[in-house]
Design a protein that fits this description.
- The structure is a single chain.
- This protein is α+β, with helices and mostly antiparallel strands and 454 residues long.
- Among the domains are: 17-120, Immunoglobulin-like (Sandwich); 331-452, Glutaredoxin, CATH 3.40.30.
- Helix content is 42%, strand content 23%.
- The chain is built from 16 helices and 16 strands.
- The strands form four sheets. Strands 4-5-1-8-9 form a five-stranded mixed sheet. Strands 14-13-12-15-16 form a five-stranded mixed sheet.
- The radius of gyration is 30 Å and the shape is globular.
Length: 454
């Protein structure tokens, strides 16, 4: 009976075992909430949220306001990369590794990665120590290489060899210490393929960096996949290493870097995740050409069961009226004649305005713009009025002669307005003679400047 009770007690203890994640922010935040996520591929998956407790710490005889928080994870919680998020934008999160151990850390919320200190968690303490030691040695090596590139008369071969040996020593030391630990593949993947000798030209230096950038990265390692390690490297490769001031060259570099990145990934599902991740990144800089390339040449090459046709349609619709696109076509009846945007040939440039007689800004700006454009024979205006009915429009269009006037009923629900993603009026689109969108000034003053520079 005693043995049975002891077994029952042990089972009960293990079933309720849990791990704690405790954090201290050395600066009080405006928000009282903090959220815990687990990183899964390119996504952050919600785990829990809690409140930040305000407290104070006595430092050098002065009270310093701090914030503390705590999460409890069950024994069944999966090992992996986790994230605490305390702001929606900017430096508002911190990633760490959880591998079935309690974690305690302190950090400044404005500089989380640079200031984090772990007091518990062998995994994170070792990884933090590695990153600090490796960074110092690698920076020393890079500084010698850059010094020679800037001054070819320098002879720093001996210093370079010593610095290279120091980098290798740090890597070897921490790989040995990390044997059997969760952080092992992270440390292994961090090593750069440094050349054995100083490179004498910037071209050789950049060539070595691009050619060997992925040599130590394992795109099949599930620990790396379920972290930000690989995605951060991909961002560096696509957006920072492959850079040119020339836009045409930059477009080519983007396509080339996309090809290289996706060629490294063999798993179709992870390929899909990275394609979607890159689309999101290119959306932030509104680079339509790269988005099109990813959709047409990469996404559509995925196995059919992984493709979402509705997703493709939504993305195409979202970017249908962006700069660089041919303006979505439409037609209208004017003085008994059917006209079509794509076939207009009366000017070198066109100004497409979405406006409304119910819009107070429009009633102010449109007459001003009309006077501004008097005598401009190289520009033709297409005024698309978004209206509930035609009563006021019929009267006002007579005050704007020599413009093309289009009536768009149903206002915000108008099909053409929705194609152009119109959610406010007035909205300006400047087109070239081929009807390609070359500008989308937000304000009237910006439009005037843009038109003067045509």
């Amino acid at each position: 009976m005693k043995k049975y009770c002891l077994l029952l007690l042990l089972c009960s203890t293990f079933s309720f075992a849990q791990f704690s994640i405790n954090g201290t922010l050395t600066k009080v935040l405006e928000s009282d909430w903090i959220v815990l996520y687990k990183i899964e591929s390119t996504q952050q998956v919600f785990v829990a949220n809690t409140t930040i407790k305000r407290d104070s710490l006595l430092t050098n005889g002065k009270k310093v306001a701090i914030g503390t928080f705590s999460f409890n994870l069950p024994a069944t919680a999966k090992s992996g990369t986790y994230r605490v998020k305390y702001r929606m934008k900017g430096a508002g999160f911190l990633d760490f590794i959880f591998n079935k151990e309690n974690i305690n850390f302190t950090f400044h919320p404005d500089y989380p990665e640079a200031t984090v200190l772990f007091s518990d968690s062998k995994e994170n303490i070792l990884y933090s120590a590695y990153l600090k030691a490796f960074s110092l040695k690698q920076q020393k090596l890079d500084s010698i290489q850059i010094a020679v590139l800037r001054n070819k008369t320098l002879n720093l071969d001996v210093e370079y060899k010593k610095a290279l040996e120091a980098v290798s020593a740090v890597q070897k030391e921490f790989l040995n210490r990390a044997q059997g630990m969760y952080v092992y593949p992270f440390i292994k993947a961090s090593l750069r393929e440094n050349p054995s000798e100083i490179l004498k030209t910037p071209q050789a230096y950049m060539g070595n960096m691009t050619d060997t950038f992925f040599d130590h990265l394992d795109f099949s390692n599930i620990k790396l996949i379920n972290s930000t390690f690989l995605t951060n490297r991909i961002l560096d490769y696509v957006f920072y290493i492959h850079y040119s001031d020339d836009q045409a060259q930059q477009n080519k570099l983007f396509k080339k870097s996309i090809d290289v990145v996706l060629s490294k990934i063999k798993d179709p599902e992870y390929q899909k995740d990275i394609i979607l991740f890159l689309i999101t990144q290119f959306e932030t800089i509104n680079h339509i050409e790269s988005i099109d390339y990813l959709l047409e040449n990469k996404y559509k090459q995925l196995p059919k069961q992984l493709q979402d046709l509705e997703f493709i349609a939504q993305k195409k619709k979202l970017f249908a009226a962006e700069i660089g696109r041919i303006a979505p076509d439409f037609s209208w009846i004017e003085n008994g004649e059917k006209l079509q945007l794509s076939t207009l040939q009366s000017a070198d440039n066109y100004l497409l305005i979405f406006w409304s007689t119910e819009c107070s800004h429009c009633l102010t700006e449109i007459p001003q713009l009309f006077l501004e454009l008097q005598g401009n024979k190289s520009l033709k205006v297409i005024a698309f009025a978004m209206e509930k009915n035609d009563t006021q429009w019929k009267e006002m269009k007579n005050d704007l002669p020599n413009w093309h006037h289009v009536l768009g009923l149903k206002k915000w629900e108008n099909k053409i307005a929705r194609t152009y993603n119109i959610n406010a009026t007035p909205n300006y689109f400047v087109l070239d003679k081929n009807k390609k969108i070359i500008g989308k000034p937000l304000l009237l003053k910006d439009l005037k400047v843009f038109l003067k520079e045509l």
